[in-house]
């Protein structure tokens, strides 16, 4: 799993919003996200906890590796303590190496190109609605070349039915 933050601009309110997403590097699903006017360590903790619940990983002995950059949310005591409590291995990438977080960086580039750059938001509610709709589209309908030209949800369904072959992700 990889977590990172993307900023968006609300022109009508002359302020920024924060979008922190957690992606599964295998199936490219945005498992969960935080969209708000602030973004702190506590939000990263809540995001990680929800993602672990959604993926039913709290009872597993083998927890996923969570890769982040060195942003203040991810070096916070709250986030580090939560990683310890949830028994999650936290891997921080070296400074100035976004390629080591390529999956979430790629999603944010797609989001910027397909969504954020095409909208001028008048209100936070407008931004929230547009971004959440896009994430739903991305997970359910946007085709991915790395997933046999299926959407993330279609890939998971086809994989469960044995109609596509599993593959190894190199990170």
Please characterize this protein's 3D structure.
With 171 residues, this protein is of the alpha+beta class. It has a single domain, classed as Nucleotidyltransferase, domain 5, CATH 3.30.420.10. The protein contains 5 helices and 5 strands; from the N terminus they run βββαβαβααα. It has helices at 41-54, 77-86, 102-114, 124-140, 152-160; strands at residues 2-10, 15-23, 30-36, 65-68, 89-92. The strands form 2 sheets. It has a 3-stranded antiparallel β-sheet with strand order 1-2-3, sandwiched between helices. It has a two-stranded parallel ribbon with strand order 4-5. Strand 4, helix 2 (77-86) and strand 5 form a beta-alpha-beta unit. Helix 1 (41-54) packs parallel to helix 2. The longest helix has 17 residues, at 124-140. It is globular and about 50 Å long. The termini are close together.
